[in-house]
Protein 1
Amino acid sequence: MLDGYYQGALAIDSNDKYYFENLYRLYYAKMVRFAKQYVLSDEDAENIAQDTYSDVWERWSELHNHPNHLAFLLFVVKNKCIDFLRRKTTIQNIYRQLAEQQKMLFSLNLQALEQFGTDFKSENDIATAIQQALNSLPARCRDIFYKSKIEGKKHKDIAREMDISINTIETQMTIAYRKLREELKDLLPLLLIFFLD
């Protein structure tokens, strides 16, 4: 397992390799336990400990001259745990936002289906009502809705194309759904099937 650490190393003598292996045996399990207190997962803790020893091998001269090897190792592990938790927090925030958007969409869909009746008029009347409802949206709101629901573009792509933030896209989509629900009432579930034919 330690052979991988030596690949690409320059001018590392056998004493350094022996010393590094001793450090690995002496502190690896401690580094894993330290990391696990914060990242909670065995696998993530082991990955952090492995990455720590890889970094230490690449920065061997710093460790070799450091007066407290355990403190140096803990410093590296600590920083790797911080980076890991920051990434996890960012990912969790994204998932939370997506879950909130999905919850809102499910709620709107539920309301639309509960109001949906099949005693509508002709297809032409439905198409006209839907077109009028779409035309009633503010221009920017309508453009965003078309790009998202009619053209099937992702929010991040629309944001880049229109040079606006993803939050603006989400706000405008919420406005569009609210206005369309008010205008179309029980015809809202027919919106996309008429425009995707």
Note: The chain has two domains: 3-88, 116-195.
Protein 2
Amino acid sequence: MFAVDHILIADSVLEASFACQLQACRGACCVQGAAGAPLEPGERFVLEALVPTLRSTLRPEAQALIASHGPWEKVGTDRYAIRCTPEGACVFAVYDEAGIARCAIQQAYEQGRIDFPKPISCHLYPLRVERRHGLEILHYEKISLCDAARTHGARCGIALVDFLEEPLVRRYGRAWYERFWTLWTERRQLLGRVPQQTGGTEPC
């Protein structure tokens, strides 16, 4: 583990390669899991404010659930998560014509309809933020749903920290990210840990 300012980073990020492959995973991280995506406390109110804009694009069962219970739920002491429909899908998950789960929040952001990209935990995934004794710890959550993303990243030489540059800058700032990237490079050289690359014939 190494530190950048007040943020601790697990060494598992040193050799991780990653690049999402929606055609393979079909957006499974939006519809599978034990609970909805974690929320920062202030993001609860952002989601509530977005509901009127997004409501017509959501699935009928998600609209009904939000109308009766709201878009988020409390899951522990000072811990909150996006609410999910009974089958496990995020209330903001929508499906395209190919049956791939997409994020209604992200779609609206990309269309210029809102100015909130998505909850930061979703944006940072597969990095997870853990809080302990006043510190933040970033660790890499490695799950089988993302096997295709790891394979694609390794084939194309895309390191996890490069793939997640935008959300890391969003959360911690450009100056922090540049310090992080420099220390990440130095530490992986020191430990002999480099992002995995496999090569291959499929296009990147």
Note: The chain has a mean pLDDT of 91.
Protein 3
Amino acid sequence: MTRKLILMLTVILSLIIASVACTPAQKPMPPEPDRRPAPITPAPQNDGSGMHQRAMKIAEEVDKLEGVKKAYVVISDSMGYIGLDLDRNLEDGKVDALKKDAETRAKSIDKSLTNVMVTSDVDTVTRIKKVAEGVRNGKPVTGFTKELEEIGRRIKPTTR
């Protein structure tokens, strides 16, 4: 009888140990996420309006050159891009002189410009005009980086 009792106690004890040891450990619940909205902080205003104002000032002065119908200017950091819409009856020598005058005026108006690229090529002037209009409409100059790189490839830069 004691033998049966010991056997029965061993079986019961084994079942208890097996049932307790095989249950998965209770893991703590992950903390509930914070459902409050994050505070909104306004982004710093680096919209290029300062560069746009500098470009407008240069364009106004270059427009005053005889033979220039309209000048379009874009400034990106220390680089200036000027597109000249010229009178049709200008000689080639006069066109080159106007480009040099536009560059000189731009650098004298804005001393922070180290490179100024001037073109009168119709396609490139149109590209500069579109970038200038985009900046005027509030788009950042950085949004036109690829376009400005392409314009730069088309025009030979002049350094100070």
Note: The CA atoms of residues 32 and 38 lie 16 Å apart.
Protein 4
Amino acid sequence: MFGRPCYSFSLGGGLWMGERIIEKIMNGVSVDHIPLGMVWKVAQILHVEGCGERVSLADGCNSVKMPEGKGVLKIENIFPSDGELDLISLVAPHASVSVIRNGLVESKRRVEVPSVLNGLVACANGNCISQDDHESVVSKIYYVDGKFRCHYCGHFFGNGEAEV
């Protein structure tokens, strides 16, 4: 049915090719349903490089819900903040995040793009006051019906133009 292998990498622990299962974690976070090719961006948002914890990630995994493939990320002893979850929602809008404690899923939820993004996304209009280095204006972006709109200049832009 599915012929494509799932490649998983373990930072600091080697490379396994074709393995279809990422090892279970006892405490930490699991992020699933990450769009193909975006697992590294999610890892960057969660500051996994140099975190000193066990990190497992996979990209290109078979998925019924995501026929093009999906990514999975598990991090031992790291729990994302609300701001980090908001950033993940911008690069992986259908991701699910599970908090794991003592080997059991304590909570699981889908990420959602918040309706107001304060300081998380830069306005795509280079002439906006929020882009001016001489002004101390923090970006304020509204997210409505899959589009972003700047509070200050009113510029509309799509997810592809959003600078996280």
Note: The CA atoms of residues 96 and 110 lie 4 Å apart.
